[in-house]
Amino acid sequence: MLNVLRTNGYFAEIQSAIKPKHRDDHTMNFTKLCTYNLLFLLALSCGDTDGKKTSLFEIELDKTEYKRNDRVAVSIKNKKDKTIKNVSYSINGKELPLEDGQITFSIPDLGNMSLNATVDYEDATVEITKGIRIFAAAPPEVYTYEIIKEYPHDNRAYTQGLEFHDGVLYESTGKPGRSSVSKVAFDTGEVLQQVKLDKTIFGEGITIFKEKIYMLSWKKKTGYIYKLSDMSKIDNFQYGESKEGWGLTNNGSKLIKSDGTEKIWFLNPETLTEEGFIQTVTHNKIVNSANELEYVNGKIYANVYQKPSIMIIDATSGAIEGVVNFGGLSNKITKTADWNDKDQVFNGIAYHPERKTFFVTGKDWDKMFEVNIVKK
Question: Domain 51-135, what architecture?
Fold first, then answer.
C-alpha cells in the first residue's frame, strides 16, 4: 500500500511538472519528464537492500534456551543457495568459539541475548540475529543465617537502603511524606542526622561513594546527591534507560542500581550515565525481583522484593549463585495493629567490613539484626 501511495504521489508530481504555462515550455517539460522517469525507475530498483540481504539466511539451532558453557550445533539456512565463504558467531560483540559446526556459550553474558552471525558470501557480507536465552551453569546454593545480636530500629522507618561507612550506619526510607536519608547509631537506633525529602517523593536505595551520598527515588526517574560531611544537597541526576529506582550500591568504581526488572545497571559515578547492565539469572529462569543491594567481594547481595530472602549474585555475569532464606525472622519483631504483611516486608542489608557481618531489617520493623550468612 505504501508503494502505491508513493507511486501515486510520483505521478501527481509529474503531472504538475509537465503542465505547460506557455507553449515554449514543452521542450523543458519533456526533459523534466525524462529525468523523473529515470529517478522513478532507480527508486523502484533499490528497495530495502539490507532487508533483502538478511532474508537470504537464517540461524538454525535446535532450541532457544541454553546454559553457560553449553556446546551446541549451529548452522546457517541458505535460502537462495548463495556461496558462503565464512561464518562467525558472537554475542554482544564477543566472538564465540566455533569448531566442527558447534559453538560454545563461554562468555559471561547471561539472560535474554541476541546471537549474531556474520555471513561472508560471494562478494557481500550480512549480519543476522536470533533471540536466545542463556542461563547460569549451576543452580543457586541455599544459605541460612545465624543471629549474632538484635538492635533497636525505628518502627516508622520504611527502610529502602542501608550502608555502613566508617562504622556509621546510613539509612534511606520511602513513602511520600516519610522519605528521608539518615545517619544512624546502629547500636542504639538513634538518628544522629536526617534529611527529609519533599512530600511528593518516594525514596529508595542509597550508596556512599567518594564522600557523597547517592539516593534514588522510585518513579520520578530522578536521583539525589548529598555531601557526606554535612548531608547538604549537592545536585540531582536523571536515570537513563533503567525503568525505575529501587536499590543502590557501588563496587568502588561504579554505582550499581536495580530498577524492578531483571536488569542491574552500572552507572558512571562522575556523569551518572548508565554504562551497561547484567541480568539476574538462575540455571533455569530469569529473575526480576532484586530490590535493596549491597556489594561485597565481587558479589551483589540483593533483597528479593516481598520475600524473606536475599540473592547472592555474581557481579560480572548476573548468575544467582546463592539464595539466603531469612524465613522466621519477622516473627521476632513487634507488629502494630495496622500491620500489613505485604507492605512491611523484609528489606535492607548492610555489610560491616570490620565486623565481617551483615545487618538486616525490614520496612517499619522495630528491630535490626546482625547476622552471619552460612551455607545450609
Answer: Sandwich (2.60)
Q: What is the pTM of this model?
A: 0.85
Encode pLDDT of 190-236 as tens digits. Answer: 999 999 999 999 999 999 999 999 999 999 999 999 999 999 999 99
Does residue 46 carry a pLDDT above 60? no
Q: How many CB atoms lie within 10 A of CB 361?
A: 24
Query: How many of the other CB atoms lie within 10 Å of CB of 139?
Result: 14
> Which residue is it, cell 549491597?
294
How far is 150 from 367, CA to CA, in rounded Å?
A: 7
Distance, CA of 136 to CA of 173 (rounded, Å): 33
Degrees (nearest 5) of the Cα angle 236, 239, 240? 140
Tell me the C-alpha distance between 63 and 41, whole Å. 43
Domain residue limits, the chain: 2-47, 51-135, 141-375
Residue carrying the nine cell digits 527529609: 196
Are residues 253 and 240 in contact, defined by beta-carbon separation less than 8 angstroms?
Answer: no
Which single residue is written with the C-alpha cell 525505628? 154
Architecture of domain 141-375: 7 Propeller (2.130)
Q: Is the pLDDT score of 16 beyond 70?
A: no
What is the residue whose three cell numbers read 516519610? 178
The answer to whether the beta carbons of residues 245 and 204 sit under 8 Å apart is yes
Question: Identical fold at 51-135 and 141-375?
Answer: no
Angle between helices 2-18 and 26-46 (to 10 degrees): 170
The alpha carbon of 68 is separated from its chain's Cα centroid by a whole number of angstroms, namely 19
Phi, psi of 351, deg, nearest 5: -100, 130
Contact between 346 and 360 (Cβ < 8 Å): yes
Centroid of chain to Cα 304: 16
Cell reading at 324: 539466603
**Which residue is listed with cell 507492605?**
343
Amino acid found at 206: I
Asked whether residue 174 carries a pLDDT value surpassing 80, the answer given is yes
